[in-house]
Design brief:
- Helices cover 40% and strands 17% of the residues.
- Strand 2, helix 1 and strand 3 form a beta-alpha-beta unit.
- The chain folds into two domains: 86 residues, D-Maltodextrin-Binding Protein, domain 2, CATH 3.40.190; 37 residues, no CATH class.
- It has five helices and five strands, in the order E-E-H-E-H-E-H-E-H-H.
- The two termini are 13 Å apart.
- The protein has a five-stranded mixed β-sheet, with helices on both faces.
Length: 134
């Protein structure tokens, strides 16, 4: 997760007080905002149905910063590079992503084998770099 804000402003991720913070409802960043900032130090959390609406409020000045998944933030910045940027360190809250497979389904073995193969041959790292810049 990363903070996205107006780079001309004075947003400091280490001292968040009396700000309006945006994020997407029902996401890890949204929950993080509610748990750590809602009603604390004069902050207000505004959650949106999608990141596009959160970014619109950031762009219009109705919010001071948006906490978003890094991929979403970078994608938005590619289209809106003027005056906005990622500020501070990436927040790692050990949130993992999983894929559910029905118990006993043979696809699990095939999936794990394919994932292991692209991990070991470097293809996964190449795809991550190509698509996510990491």
């Amino acid at each position: 997760m990363v903070w996205l804000t107006d780079t001309k402003g004075s947003f400091d991720p280490k001292s968040i007080k009396n700000l309006t913070l945006g994020g997407q409802r029902s996401t890890t960043p949204g929950a993080y905002l509610q748990d750590n900032y809602e009603g604390k130090d004069g902050n207000t959390v505004q959650l949106y149905d999608n990141y596009d609406n959160a970014y619109l409020d950031l762009k219009s000045g109705r919010s001071d910063a948006v906490l978003a998944e890094k991929v979403s933030a970078k994608s938005w910045l590619a289209d809106n590079p003027q005056g906005f940027g990622i500020v501070g360190d990436e927040i790692d809250n050990d949130d993992n992503i999983a894929i559910a497979v029905r118990k006993g389904d043979a696809i699990k073995e095939d999936f794990n084998k394919a994932l292991s193969e692209i991990r070991s041959n470097g293809e996964l790292a190449r795809l991550e770099q190509q698509n996510f810049g990491q």
